[in-house]
Sequence to fold (215 residues):
Amino acid sequence: MTTVGLAMEPDQPESFCSGWIYAFGLYEPRWKIERHLSSDWTQAVVMAKRKSEAVIESFGMLIARHLETVLIEELEYLIIHVPAEEEHELFRGFDRCATAILAAAIYSHMINHPNLLLADVLAQVKPKPRKQHQCRSDVERAQNVKGIYAVTRSHLVSSKHVILVDDVLTSGATMRECAIVLKNAGARSVMGIALARTSRAKGISIVGDESGLAA
Fold:
């Protein structure tokens, strides 16, 4: 299976850390087993999380097409990924995580934007107290990721408009925490990109302003 032939239009973007967050498609969680198995989009996301090169390449191309419609040529952008658990120092030695491969795939299709840089600038500096899916509420999910990320190369982030890439948006806690760290490091704005959002994440409240699609 690849994403070819699947509809690829983001739902209505939400204000997010002086920018916008876009989610493509709906992810049906495993506890909704029939919907999970029958949803083409969900299964494509599962394959991307398992690092299927063909699926990630298709997602990268389609997301790049969307970004072409919202980025402003004169601005400087930085595309990065949300660190995965295996990138923490306790788990080093693994290959690149799926979000890093996805960010690279998107970047490879953005040749018309010379002011776009791809870099690894976020690191998970301590392990999560528990897995995100083990948290019982959005408050617990936010607390679970608080303070676990850091910017490793602030000079690349300063004054940039950051495009932050993740796979599935559930409560928004992880992406929000990363965005706060990036803003504190000098990013002008953060645009969130996720392959899909879970049904429970529809209409989540993410604090930010409405400064425009360039953010």
Summary: The radius of gyration is 16 Å. The helical segments are 33-38, 40-49, 53-68, 98-108, 138-145, 154-157, 173-184. The chain has a mean pLDDT of 79.
